[in-house]
Amino acid sequence: MRKGLFFCFILPGISLSAMPQSNAICQPDSATIYFDTSFNPQWHYGGVWDFSCEYDADGLLTQLLVSVFHEDECLTRRYQYGYDLNHNQISNHYIGYDCSSPGVDYETKSVFHNNLLQYQLKIDYSLHRGLGTLTDSTYFHYDSKGRRICQESFNGDYVPTTTIRYEYGDNEKVVTTERMEGNQWIAVKRVTYSYSEMGLLLNTMTETSIDGVFANSTLVTNTYDEQNNCIGVLTQKWGNESWNNVKSVVNSYDNGHLVLAKLMKWQDEEFVDANRAVYELNEAGYPIVVNFEKWNGNECIEGTWIS
């Protein structure tokens, strides 16, 4: 087991986070997830996902292999990452192939020049849709402190499509997304991250643009215990001139290690249980198995999916 990486898997979609974190977080060399497709029939690739990781001397992820198994077939994707001296990601290479009929069907390349990251994506859709090849490019800009300040995306004809701007203030970061519509930029979303003096994320407020004017959309508020463990995450949506509860996640810890994450949804003016994740820890206190269970109204049912 290694330290410095946090993995986050979310149903019904799946999200894999590979951002360097504090040394207090365990960084796995490998992981396997088993899905019960009776609960999630949309998982057309089957019920087993394998992840294998490699790291550099600083604990940064340098290679990730993802294999998805379905009957006697397997789809494997390889991600390779490079970093500058400030640990900013400066390169990304991605190759995917089908084990049953080897051949590259996805490929991405990245090039870095003078604190500017150029990310080029090539997708061969012929294996899936018969549409030929599409190329996209994304450029990342950093300031003198190594903070990302701009992300620019272009389509295959090098026409600008999306720009994301990052602004930093005292205990605050504002991320604004603009899209090209016609011949002008339209701001579509703004996210404000607020932090404590110790750098803990306190809340995340998302605003969406209506006729060019930002309006409140979603507010996520984090709470912490005396050891700075996140014990609660409250999600609210804006409506009728106020923030309205949507869902809440309550976390439980054992000596600073997460052992239970319970999701509750707002229903009939109160929070009711929805599902939970139960973490099995090894002797060092790090999770080696995560069981995801759904609430059926009376109890939690095991085996929804497990990693």
Spell out the helices and strands N to C. EEEEEEEEEEEEEEEEEEEEEE
List low-confidence stretches: 1-25, 41-45, 100-106, 122-134
Rounded Rg = 21 Å
Shape: globular
Mean pLDDT: 76
Question: Could you explain how this protein is built, in words?
Answer:
The N terminus is likely disordered. It is globular, with a radius of gyration of 21 Å. The chain contains no helices and 22 strands. The strands form 2 sheets. It has a 20-stranded antiparallel beta barrel. The protein has a two-stranded antiparallel sheet with strand order 1-2. Helices cover about 0% and strands about 65% of the residues. The protein has about 300 residues and is mostly beta strands.
Which helices and strands, and how do they pair?
Blueprint lengths: L1 E2 L22 E2 L2 E6 L12 E8 L5 E10 L2 E11 L5 E10 L5 E10 L2 E9 L8 E10 L5 E7 L5 E10 L2 E10 L2 E12 L5 E10 L2 E12 L5 E10 L2 E13 L2 E11 L2 E12 L5 E9 L4 E7 L1
Antiparallel strand pairs: 1-2, 3-4, 3-22, 4-5, 5-6, 6-7, 7-8, 8-9, 9-10, 10-11, 11-12, 12-13, 13-14, 14-15, 15-16, 16-17, 17-18, 18-19, 19-20, 20-21, 21-22
